[in-house]
Amino acid sequence: MRSSFAFVLTFIVALMLEGLVFPTHLVWFKPEWTLLAILYWVIALPFKVGVGAAWFLGLLVDLLQGGVIGQHSLTYVVITAACATLYKRLRMYRRWQQSIFIFLLISINQLVGFWIDHITGDAEPTLMIFMPALVSAILWPWVFVLLRSVRRLYLIK
C-alpha cells in the first residue's frame, strides 16, 4: 500500500509543479515536470506506467493549464509509446545520454504543442519553444536520481 501511495504521489507532485505560475519573462524556462515523471516511470517500470497513464495525466495537464483538451494527452501518448519501445536501451545509457534523448522527446512535445497552438491562433513562431526541452534535459539527471531513490525507499516494483 505504501509503495502504491508513493508511486501516485510522484505524479501528484509533478502536477503541482506543472501548475506553478512563472513570471511572463521566465515562462519559457519552465520544465515539463509531468512528462519527466512519466518518462522516468516508463523507463523504470514499463509494465506499470504506459500509454493509459500518460493519456490520463495529459488530460489533467490540459485541465490544469486551460489549453486545448487533448493536446498534452496526444503528445504524452506518442512520447510514452516511443519511450516504452526503447526502455531497455535507455536503461543502459548514461544519464547525459538519456538527457539527450529526453531533450528530443520533449522537443517533439513542444513542436506538437506549438503546432496545435498555431492552428488555434495562440502562438507566434519562435525558437524559444525548445527552451522547456533544454531545461528538462538539464534537470533529468537529478529527477532520475530523486525518483530512483523514492522507488528504492518505498520498494516500488
UniProtKB/TrEMBL annotation:
Top-level taxon of the source organism? Bacteria
Q: What is its main location?
A: membrane
Which sequence ranges are marked TM in the entry? Answer: 6-28, 35-57, 69-87, 99-116, 128-147
Localization per Swiss-Prot or TrEMBL: Cell inner membrane; Cell membrane
Q: Which keywords label this protein? A: Cell inner membrane, Cell membrane, Cell shape, Membrane, Transmembrane, Transmembrane helix
Identify the PANTHER family for this entry.
ROD SHAPE-DETERMINING PROTEIN MRED
**Purpose:** Involved in formation of the rod shape of the cell. May also contribute to regulation of formation of penicillin-binding proteins.
The entry assigns this protein to a family as follows: Belongs to the MreD family.
Q: Which NCBIfam families match?
A: shape_MreD
The name this protein goes by in its record: Rod shape-determining protein MreD
